[in-house]
Design a protein that fits this description.
Layout lengths: L4 H46 L7 E3 L7 E3 L3 E4 L9 E2 L12 E4 L4 E2 L1 E3 L6 E3 L1 H7 L10 E4 L8 E3 L7 E2 L3 E4 L7 H8 L2 H10 L1 E2 L3 E2 L2 H6 L1 E4 L2 H44 L5 H9 L1
Parallel strand pairs: 5-11, 7-10
Antiparallel strand pairs: 1-2, 3-15, 4-12, 5-8, 6-7, 9-10, 9-12, 13-14
GO molecular function, one term: DNA binding
Subunit structure: The methyltransferase is composed of M and S polypeptides.
Protein name: Type I restriction enzyme S subunit
Length: 281
């Protein structure tokens, strides 16, 4: 049953006004998220390529996308700062289990950390033991997605939980000359991500080989400065990420409110006439 035409018009006018306000708020929050993400990227990129000392003398890095770097820094290939060769997970599809050892793939790598709510599934302890002969995760390891739409996205292991990884992920384990958190920030910088995009291949999907990853470079300061920069970026990015999370939550709540409002209005659960009258007082 449809309401009479005059009431349909009142409902339509009500929803146009109310959803218009909600949509405008959502658009503002989405713009805020975009601005904050750009700011985050700029803060990280500046710190890992120019350092925190504005007046420090610089030198030409020799790489166009890095430009000048502080005089005491070195441009180092990733393969030269790892304690073990860059590797990946098994190139086979394991049998999924209802429980067992968490098995992590590209979907779980985002926002700089491994999201165990988005794992591929679980594998048997037998498969885990077999896969671990090639690579066994440990705290401080860094993963880079090396195939698919999210190629280049990186995350660090922040847990001692036992798990394993699949072949779309390259595993980078830092050696004595590089602090994992500094390297993570470097790999997430705009300049490094540009270098990834310049070197990946296209087949059925974009991908980048482990040898290519190993030959990509980052500017590397002395260890003490790495620690200072990493601590600064952990603090600054955490603040930005918190505001981004609040804005994204506001967007989701607003979308839910919009959907509920439409449903309530078109099913007669809102007295649009009284609402309009109240609004006009």
């Amino acid at each position: 049953m449809f309401p009479p035409l005059p009431e349909q018009q009142r409902i339509a006018d009500f929803l146009d006004r109310e959803t218009g306000e909600i949509d405008a708020f959502i658009a503002d929050q989405e713009e805020l998220v975009a601005v904050l993400q750009e700011r985050r990227e700029a803060v990280v990129t500046h710190a890992v390529t120019e350092g925190l000392n504005a007046g420090a003398p610089t030198k030409n890095s020799g790489v166009a996308w890095f430009g000048d770097i502080p005089l005491q820094w070195q441009l180092r290939k990733l393969k030269s700062i790892v304690s073990t060769p860059i590797t990946d997970g098994p190139h086979e599809t394991p049998e999924a289990q209802s429980s067992g050892v968490p098995f992590v793939s590209a979907e779980a790598v985002s926002s700089g950390a491994v999201d165990f709510e988005k794992i591929w599934g679980f594998i048997s302890r037998e498969d885990h033991a077999r896969f671990s002969r090639k690579y066994k995760p440990q705290r401080g390891d860094i993963y880079m997605v090396k195939s698919g739409a999210t190629t280049g996205i990186c995350a660090i292991v922040e847990t001692d939980l036992e798990f394993n990884i699949w072949s779309p992920l390259a595993a980078i384990r830092c050696g004595a000359s590089a602090l994992p958190r500094f390297v993570l920030h470097s790999l997430r910088s705009h300049n490094f991500q540009d270098s990834v995009a310049l070197h990946w291949n296209y087949g059925t999907q974009q991908n980048i080989g482990m040898k290519v990853i190993g030959n990509l470079s980052i500017p590397l300061p002395p260890l003490e400065e790495q620690a200072e920069i990493a601590a600064y970026l952990d603090r600054e990015t955490a603040e930005i990420d918190a505001v981004i999370a609040d804005a994204k939550e506001a967007i989701e709540v607003s979308k839910e409110r919009r959907a509920a409002l439409i449903s309530a209005a078109v099913t007669g659960k809102i007295d649009v006439c009284n609402h309009v009258a109240t609004m006009g007082v």
